[in-house]
Amino acid sequence: MKRNKKKIIRAVTVSQSLGFAREVMIKMRKMGYDMVAVTSPGPELDKLREKDGFHCVEVPMERHISIVNDMKSLIKMIGVFIKEKPQMVHSMTPKAGMICMVAAWLTRVPVRIHTFTGLVWPTATGLKRRILMMTDWLTCACATHVIPEGQGVLNDLKNGGITKKPMRVLGFGNVMGVDMKVFSPTRFVSTKDPAIFTFVFVGRIVGDKGINELVEAFVRLHAKYNNTKLVLVGNYEHELDPLNDVTRQHIDTMEAIEACGPKYGDELLQKYVDADCFVMPSYREGFPNTVLEAGAMGLPSIVTDINGSREIIVNEKNGLIVPSKNVDALYDAMERMLCDKDAREGMKRNARQMIASRFERGFVQKCQIEFYEELGIRS
What we know:
Blueprint: E1 4-11, H1 22-30, E2 34-39, H2 43-50, E3 55-58, H3 67-84, E4 86-92, H4 94-106, E5 111-116, H5 126-142, E6 145-148, H6 151-159, E7 197-202, H7 211-224, E8 228-233, H8 245-253, E9 257-259, H9 265-273, E10 277-280, H10 289-296, E11 301-304, H11 309-312, E12 319-322, H12 327-339, H13 341-359, H14 361-374
Parallel strand pairs: 1-2, 1-4, 2-3, 4-5, 5-6, 7-8, 7-10, 8-9, 10-11, 11-12
Helix pairs in contact: 3-4, 4-5, 7-8, 7-12, 10-13
Protein backbone atom coordinates (compact mmCIF):
# COMPACT_ATOMS: atom_id res chain seq x y z
CA MET A 1 0.00 0.00 0.00
CA LYS A 2 1.53 3.30 -1.08
CA ARG A 3 1.08 5.93 1.61
CA ASN A 4 1.01 9.70 1.62
CA LYS A 5 4.10 10.45 3.72
CA LYS A 6 2.70 13.86 4.71
CA LYS A 7 -0.83 12.76 5.62
CA ILE A 8 -1.76 12.89 9.29
CA ILE A 9 -5.19 11.94 10.61
CA ARG A 10 -6.26 13.60 13.87
CA ALA A 11 -9.17 11.82 15.55
CA VAL A 12 -11.41 12.52 18.54
CA THR A 13 -14.61 10.87 19.74
CA VAL A 14 -16.98 13.83 19.42
CA SER A 15 -16.63 16.97 17.34
CA GLN A 16 -16.64 19.27 20.39
CA SER A 17 -13.13 17.99 21.16
CA LEU A 18 -11.72 19.22 17.83
CA GLY A 19 -10.84 22.47 19.56
CA PHE A 20 -7.85 20.67 21.06
CA ALA A 21 -6.40 20.07 17.58
CA ARG A 22 -7.76 22.81 15.29
CA GLU A 23 -5.06 25.46 15.66
CA VAL A 24 -2.14 23.07 15.36
CA MET A 25 -3.80 21.51 12.30
CA ILE A 26 -4.01 24.94 10.68
CA LYS A 27 -0.36 25.64 11.49
CA MET A 28 0.79 22.27 10.16
CA ARG A 29 -1.19 22.64 6.94
CA LYS A 30 0.68 25.90 6.30
CA MET A 31 3.89 23.94 6.80
CA GLY A 32 2.89 21.52 4.02
CA TYR A 33 1.29 18.65 5.93
CA ASP A 34 -1.90 16.99 4.64
CA MET A 35 -4.16 17.15 7.69
CA VAL A 36 -7.40 15.16 7.99
CA ALA A 37 -9.95 15.26 10.81
CA VAL A 38 -12.00 12.20 11.82
CA THR A 39 -14.75 12.35 14.43
CA SER A 40 -18.48 11.96 15.01
CA PRO A 41 -20.85 14.28 13.13
CA GLY A 42 -21.30 17.68 14.74
CA PRO A 43 -21.19 21.43 14.18
CA GLU A 44 -17.50 21.71 15.05
CA LEU A 45 -16.66 19.20 12.31
CA ASP A 46 -18.84 21.14 9.86
CA LYS A 47 -16.98 24.34 10.79
CA LEU A 48 -13.60 22.70 10.27
CA ARG A 49 -14.73 21.52 6.85
CA GLU A 50 -16.65 24.56 5.62
CA LYS A 51 -14.82 27.48 7.25
CA ASP A 52 -11.29 26.13 7.57
CA GLY A 53 -11.34 24.00 4.42
CA PHE A 54 -10.07 20.74 5.91
CA HIS A 55 -10.83 17.29 4.59
CA CYS A 56 -13.11 15.82 7.27
CA VAL A 57 -14.48 12.31 7.64
CA GLU A 58 -17.48 11.43 9.80
CA VAL A 59 -17.28 8.26 11.86
CA PRO A 60 -20.02 8.07 14.51
CA MET A 61 -18.61 7.12 17.91
CA GLU A 62 -20.23 6.98 21.34
CA ARG A 63 -18.58 7.89 24.62
CA HIS A 64 -20.26 5.11 26.58
CA ILE A 65 -19.57 1.41 26.04
CA SER A 66 -21.75 -0.15 23.35
CA ILE A 67 -20.39 -3.35 21.83
CA VAL A 68 -22.59 -3.26 18.72
CA ASN A 69 -22.06 0.43 17.95
CA ASP A 70 -18.37 0.28 18.79
CA MET A 71 -17.92 -2.58 16.31
CA LYS A 72 -19.73 -0.52 13.66
CA SER A 73 -17.41 2.40 14.38
CA LEU A 74 -14.35 0.14 14.16
CA ILE A 75 -15.39 -1.32 10.81
CA LYS A 76 -16.02 2.14 9.38
CA MET A 77 -12.71 3.43 10.75
CA ILE A 78 -10.86 0.57 9.08
CA GLY A 79 -12.44 1.58 5.79
CA VAL A 80 -11.41 5.20 6.32
CA PHE A 81 -7.77 4.28 6.95
CA ILE A 82 -7.65 1.95 3.94
CA LYS A 83 -8.98 4.74 1.74
CA GLU A 84 -6.94 7.62 3.16
CA LYS A 85 -3.61 5.74 3.47
CA PRO A 86 -2.16 8.01 6.18
CA GLN A 87 1.40 7.89 7.44
CA MET A 88 0.20 8.74 10.93
CA VAL A 89 -2.96 8.49 13.01
CA HIS A 90 -3.02 10.57 16.19
CA SER A 91 -6.04 10.05 18.45
CA MET A 92 -7.29 11.73 21.61
CA THR A 93 -10.15 10.92 23.99
CA PRO A 94 -10.82 7.34 25.17
CA LYS A 95 -13.24 5.86 22.64
CA ALA A 96 -11.53 7.39 19.61
CA GLY A 97 -8.25 6.11 21.01
CA MET A 98 -9.35 2.50 21.26
CA ILE A 99 -11.13 2.43 17.91
CA CYS A 100 -8.45 4.34 15.99
CA MET A 101 -5.47 2.49 17.43
CA VAL A 102 -7.03 -0.93 16.73
CA ALA A 103 -8.06 0.12 13.22
CA ALA A 104 -4.66 1.69 12.52
CA TRP A 105 -2.88 -1.45 13.75
CA LEU A 106 -5.05 -3.69 11.59
CA THR A 107 -4.41 -1.51 8.51
CA ARG A 108 -0.69 -1.21 9.29
CA VAL A 109 -0.54 2.55 9.62
CA PRO A 110 3.19 3.12 10.36
CA VAL A 111 2.87 5.75 13.11
CA ARG A 112 0.06 5.32 15.64
CA ILE A 113 -0.08 7.87 18.47
CA HIS A 114 -2.59 8.18 21.27
CA THR A 115 -2.65 11.05 23.74
CA PHE A 116 -4.19 10.32 27.12
CA THR A 117 -5.77 13.53 28.39
CA GLY A 118 -7.17 11.87 31.49
CA LEU A 119 -7.96 8.48 32.94
CA VAL A 120 -11.32 7.31 34.22
CA TRP A 121 -10.40 3.97 35.77
CA PRO A 122 -8.33 5.25 38.75
CA THR A 123 -11.55 6.49 40.40
CA ALA A 124 -13.77 3.61 39.18
CA THR A 125 -14.42 0.35 41.02
CA GLY A 126 -15.35 -3.26 40.30
CA LEU A 127 -16.19 -4.48 36.81
CA LYS A 128 -16.28 -0.96 35.37
CA ARG A 129 -12.70 -0.37 36.48
CA ARG A 130 -11.52 -3.63 34.91
CA ILE A 131 -13.25 -2.86 31.61
CA LEU A 132 -11.80 0.66 31.48
CA MET A 133 -8.31 -0.62 32.24
CA MET A 134 -8.64 -3.26 29.56
CA THR A 135 -9.65 -0.70 26.91
CA ASP A 136 -6.70 1.54 27.82
CA TRP A 137 -4.39 -1.50 27.69
CA LEU A 138 -5.71 -2.34 24.21
CA THR A 139 -5.22 1.24 23.04
CA CYS A 140 -1.61 1.23 24.22
CA ALA A 141 -0.94 -2.25 22.81
CA CYS A 142 -1.95 -1.10 19.33
CA ALA A 143 -0.22 2.29 19.48
CA THR A 144 3.41 2.83 18.48
CA HIS A 145 3.68 5.89 20.75
CA VAL A 146 1.82 6.89 23.91
CA ILE A 147 1.71 10.52 25.07
CA PRO A 148 0.35 11.19 28.57
CA GLU A 149 -0.86 14.77 28.90
CA GLY A 150 0.96 15.15 32.20
CA GLN A 151 3.32 13.38 34.58
CA GLY A 152 0.46 12.26 36.80
CA VAL A 153 -1.25 10.47 33.91
CA LEU A 154 2.08 8.89 32.96
CA ASN A 155 2.54 7.58 36.50
CA ASP A 156 -0.97 6.11 36.59
CA LEU A 157 -0.47 4.33 33.25
CA LYS A 158 2.85 2.93 34.44
CA ASN A 159 1.83 1.98 37.98
CA GLY A 160 -1.50 0.56 36.80
CA GLY A 161 0.32 -1.84 34.46
CA ILE A 162 -1.46 -0.41 31.40
CA THR A 163 1.69 -0.28 29.28
CA LYS A 164 5.42 -0.89 29.51
CA LYS A 165 6.12 1.15 26.40
CA PRO A 166 8.27 4.27 26.76
CA MET A 167 6.05 7.30 27.38
CA ARG A 168 6.83 10.96 27.14
CA VAL A 169 5.15 14.15 28.31
CA LEU A 170 5.58 16.87 25.71
CA GLY A 171 6.88 20.13 27.17
CA PHE A 172 5.42 20.68 30.63
CA GLY A 173 2.23 18.83 29.71
CA ASN A 174 -1.13 19.93 28.30
CA VAL A 175 -2.25 19.44 24.71
CA MET A 176 -3.66 22.84 23.85
CA GLY A 177 -1.90 25.59 25.74
CA VAL A 178 -3.26 29.05 26.44
CA ASP A 179 -3.42 31.98 24.05
CA MET A 180 -2.02 34.62 26.40
CA LYS A 181 -3.16 37.46 24.15
CA VAL A 182 -6.78 36.32 24.30
CA PHE A 183 -6.68 35.28 27.95
CA SER A 184 -5.52 38.65 29.20
CA PRO A 185 -7.23 40.50 32.06
CA THR A 186 -6.15 43.87 30.62
CA ARG A 187 -8.70 43.41 27.82
CA PHE A 188 -11.58 43.69 30.29
CA VAL A 189 -13.01 45.90 32.98
CA SER A 190 -14.44 44.26 36.09
CA THR A 191 -18.18 44.70 36.60
CA LYS A 192 -18.35 43.05 40.03
CA ASP A 193 -19.21 44.66 43.33
CA PRO A 194 -15.79 45.06 45.04
CA ALA A 195 -17.42 44.49 48.43
CA ILE A 196 -18.40 40.94 47.41
CA PHE A 197 -15.73 38.22 47.31
CA THR A 198 -16.52 35.95 44.36
CA PHE A 199 -15.45 32.36 43.84
CA VAL A 200 -15.91 30.98 40.31
CA PHE A 201 -16.02 27.42 38.96
CA VAL A 202 -15.95 26.67 35.22
CA GLY A 203 -16.76 23.19 33.93
CA ARG A 204 -19.45 20.53 33.97
CA ILE A 205 -21.69 20.96 37.01
CA VAL A 206 -21.54 17.33 38.09
CA GLY A 207 -20.56 15.25 41.08
CA ASP A 208 -17.27 14.14 39.51
CA LYS A 209 -16.13 17.77 39.45
CA GLY A 210 -16.60 18.06 43.23
CA ILE A 211 -19.61 20.35 43.01
CA ASN A 212 -21.39 18.70 45.95
CA GLU A 213 -18.38 19.43 48.17
CA LEU A 214 -17.92 22.92 46.74
CA VAL A 215 -21.51 23.95 47.40
CA GLU A 216 -21.46 22.46 50.91
CA ALA A 217 -18.24 24.32 51.75
CA PHE A 218 -19.58 27.56 50.30
CA VAL A 219 -22.87 27.33 52.22
CA ARG A 220 -20.86 27.08 55.44
CA LEU A 221 -18.59 29.93 54.39
CA HIS A 222 -21.47 32.20 53.42
CA ALA A 223 -23.18 31.58 56.76
CA LYS A 224 -20.12 33.10 58.44
CA TYR A 225 -19.19 35.67 55.76
CA ASN A 226 -22.23 37.02 53.92
CA ASN A 227 -20.06 39.12 51.58
CA THR A 228 -19.33 36.04 49.48
CA LYS A 229 -20.66 34.69 46.19
CA LEU A 230 -20.23 31.50 44.19
CA VAL A 231 -20.59 31.50 40.38
CA LEU A 232 -20.98 28.16 38.58
CA VAL A 233 -20.31 28.32 34.83
CA GLY A 234 -21.27 25.23 32.85
CA ASN A 235 -23.90 22.63 32.05
CA TYR A 236 -25.60 20.11 34.29
CA GLU A 237 -25.53 16.44 33.27
CA HIS A 238 -28.61 15.18 35.09
CA GLU A 239 -28.55 11.69 33.58
CA LEU A 240 -24.81 10.95 33.46
CA ASP A 241 -23.69 12.43 36.78
CA PRO A 242 -26.42 14.18 38.76
CA LEU A 243 -25.80 16.31 41.83
CA ASN A 244 -27.36 15.26 45.12
CA ASP A 245 -30.71 16.76 46.08
CA VAL A 246 -29.33 18.98 48.85
CA THR A 247 -26.79 20.53 46.49
CA ARG A 248 -29.43 21.23 43.86
CA GLN A 249 -31.69 22.82 46.45
CA HIS A 250 -28.91 25.16 47.59
CA ILE A 251 -28.09 26.14 44.02
CA ASP A 252 -31.73 26.76 43.18
CA THR A 253 -32.63 28.74 46.31
CA MET A 254 -29.54 30.66 47.48
CA GLU A 255 -29.14 34.16 46.04
CA ALA A 256 -25.41 33.96 46.76
CA ILE A 257 -25.02 31.07 44.28
CA GLU A 258 -25.32 31.90 40.58
CA ALA A 259 -25.54 29.04 38.10
CA CYS A 260 -25.32 30.93 34.83
CA GLY A 261 -24.99 28.06 32.35
CA PRO A 262 -22.12 27.68 29.88
CA LYS A 263 -20.26 30.76 28.64
CA TYR A 264 -17.90 31.09 25.70
CA GLY A 265 -15.46 33.61 24.30
CA ASP A 266 -15.35 37.00 25.96
CA GLU A 267 -18.45 36.19 28.03
CA LEU A 268 -16.47 33.43 29.73
CA LEU A 269 -13.42 35.63 30.20
CA GLN A 270 -15.58 38.29 31.82
CA LYS A 271 -16.60 35.70 34.44
CA TYR A 272 -12.94 35.20 35.30
CA VAL A 273 -12.38 38.97 35.51
CA ASP A 274 -15.40 39.36 37.79
CA ALA A 275 -14.05 36.77 40.26
CA ASP A 276 -11.49 36.86 43.05
CA CYS A 277 -10.60 33.16 43.16
CA PHE A 278 -11.03 30.14 40.90
CA VAL A 279 -12.05 26.80 42.45
CA MET A 280 -11.68 23.38 40.80
CA PRO A 281 -12.45 20.65 43.38
CA SER A 282 -12.55 17.82 40.83
CA TYR A 283 -12.05 14.13 41.68
CA ARG A 284 -9.97 13.49 38.56
CA GLU A 285 -8.57 15.40 35.59
CA GLY A 286 -6.08 14.93 32.81
CA PHE A 287 -4.82 18.48 32.55
CA PRO A 288 -7.67 20.92 33.24
CA ASN A 289 -7.70 23.80 30.77
CA THR A 290 -9.90 25.92 33.01
CA VAL A 291 -7.18 26.04 35.67
CA LEU A 292 -4.76 27.26 33.00
CA GLU A 293 -7.27 29.83 31.76
CA ALA A 294 -8.00 31.16 35.24
CA GLY A 295 -4.30 31.54 35.94
CA ALA A 296 -3.76 33.34 32.64
CA MET A 297 -6.52 35.74 33.68
CA GLY A 298 -4.61 36.45 36.89
CA LEU A 299 -6.72 34.43 39.33
CA PRO A 300 -5.30 32.44 42.24
CA SER A 301 -6.82 28.95 42.34
CA ILE A 302 -7.96 26.34 44.81
CA VAL A 303 -7.57 22.87 43.32
CA THR A 304 -7.62 19.29 44.54
CA ASP A 305 -4.50 17.14 44.77
CA ILE A 306 -5.04 15.28 41.50
CA ASN A 307 -3.31 14.75 38.16
CA GLY A 308 -2.96 17.89 36.10
CA SER A 309 -4.12 20.35 38.72
CA ARG A 310 -1.08 19.76 40.93
CA GLU A 311 1.14 20.17 37.85
CA ILE A 312 -0.30 23.63 37.17
CA ILE A 313 -0.69 24.92 40.71
CA VAL A 314 2.28 25.15 43.06
CA ASN A 315 0.91 25.26 46.59
CA GLU A 316 1.21 28.72 48.17
CA LYS A 317 2.72 30.14 44.95
CA ASN A 318 -0.21 30.52 42.54
CA GLY A 319 -2.91 28.78 44.53
CA LEU A 320 -3.79 26.26 47.20
CA ILE A 321 -3.98 22.47 46.88
CA VAL A 322 -6.42 20.47 49.02
CA PRO A 323 -7.38 16.77 49.22
CA SER A 324 -10.26 15.75 46.97
CA LYS A 325 -13.68 14.92 48.43
CA ASN A 326 -12.78 16.84 51.62
CA VAL A 327 -15.31 19.54 52.50
CA ASP A 328 -13.43 20.74 55.59
CA ALA A 329 -10.16 21.25 53.70
CA LEU A 330 -11.99 23.02 50.89
CA TYR A 331 -13.76 25.29 53.38
CA ASP A 332 -10.45 26.15 55.07
CA ALA A 333 -8.83 27.03 51.74
CA MET A 334 -11.77 29.20 50.69
CA GLU A 335 -11.74 30.98 54.05
CA ARG A 336 -8.02 31.62 53.74
CA MET A 337 -8.41 33.06 50.24
CA LEU A 338 -11.12 35.33 51.57
CA CYS A 339 -9.38 36.47 54.75
CA ASP A 340 -5.62 36.35 54.09
CA LYS A 341 -5.23 39.26 51.67
CA ASP A 342 -1.42 39.24 51.64
CA ALA A 343 -1.22 35.56 50.71
CA ARG A 344 -3.99 35.94 48.13
CA GLU A 345 -2.38 38.95 46.47
CA GLY A 346 0.97 37.15 46.33
CA MET A 347 -0.60 34.16 44.57
CA LYS A 348 -2.48 36.51 42.26
CA ARG A 349 0.75 38.26 41.24
CA ASN A 350 2.34 34.92 40.35
CA ALA A 351 -0.67 33.39 38.59
CA ARG A 352 -0.35 34.74 35.06
CA GLN A 353 3.44 34.55 34.81
CA MET A 354 3.48 30.92 35.96
CA ILE A 355 1.09 29.97 33.16
CA ALA A 356 2.88 32.01 30.48
CA SER A 357 6.27 30.48 31.30
CA ARG A 358 5.10 26.88 30.88
CA PHE A 359 1.85 26.65 28.93
CA GLU A 360 1.78 29.41 26.31
CA ARG A 361 -0.02 28.00 23.26
CA GLY A 362 2.74 28.56 20.72
CA PHE A 363 5.20 26.67 22.91
CA VAL A 364 2.80 23.74 23.41
CA GLN A 365 2.18 23.51 19.64
CA LYS A 366 5.91 23.71 18.92
CA CYS A 367 6.55 20.74 21.22
CA GLN A 368 3.96 18.66 19.35
CA ILE A 369 5.27 19.53 15.88
CA GLU A 370 8.85 18.80 16.93
CA PHE A 371 7.72 15.40 18.23
CA TYR A 372 6.18 14.60 14.84
CA GLU A 373 9.41 15.60 13.13
CA GLU A 374 11.44 13.38 15.46
CA LEU A 375 9.33 10.47 14.23
CA GLY A 376 10.24 11.27 10.63
CA ILE A 377 6.94 12.93 9.71
CA ARG A 378 8.19 15.97 7.81
CA SER A 379 6.49 18.44 5.49
